[in-house]
Amino acid sequence: MNEKIAITYKSFIYLLISIVTALVLLYFCTTTIIELVKKDKEWLDTTIGAIGNIAGGLIGGIVAYIVASYQVKSSTEEQKRLSLRSTYGNIRLIKEEVSYNLKVIESVIPYEKNKDNNTLLENELQNTQWLNSANNLGPEVPNGSFTALCEHYRQIAVLKNTGTIDKNVVFVEKTKDKAKEILSDLDNLTNNIVNKI
Fold this sequence. Notes:
It is a single chain. The protein is mainly α. The protein folds into two domains: about 10-80; about 80-195. It contains six helices and no strands. The protein has helices at about 10-40, 45-105, 115-125, 130-135, 145-160, 170-195. Helix 1 runs antiparallel to helix 2 (about 45-105), helix 2 runs antiparallel to helix 6 and helix 5 (about 145-160) runs antiparallel to helix 6 (about 170-195). The chain is rod-shaped and about 110 Å long.
């Protein structure tokens, strides 16, 4: 895993402020300890120990904050990458299913309402990938694309139902055109996601 660590301007400023604060604290602690040692009092050991604990705690707290901030940012970025990969895989499956359905629809064009065409549409049109993947599509899928997919799969449901009156040449053509539009949209979407991964 050979990743570059990108430090933003804001992170750099926080880091710089933390280093300067730690150095100033270290300077004041050191000079205070030196002055107290010169006085040779019996309470000095306790005071020096307390100052050392405070300085160490402050420096440790600053370092812990920086490390935790980096880990949270890295974790968030990794979750985004995993979401993108999952959405990419789901879109590819749906795209394959839409492509297959388009081939089935094109095979019955010009559509004639007969038993063979209805049986072919009923048995061959698929919606399994859509049913399995629709809930897993991430925010990378725009609302327009999602709505178009929902509309297309409602059309597929109508075509699969042999008792539907709405099945006619115009409806089959509209479903075919919608499938082509969705395939183009899904191609663009997968290319955008690949660029983000």
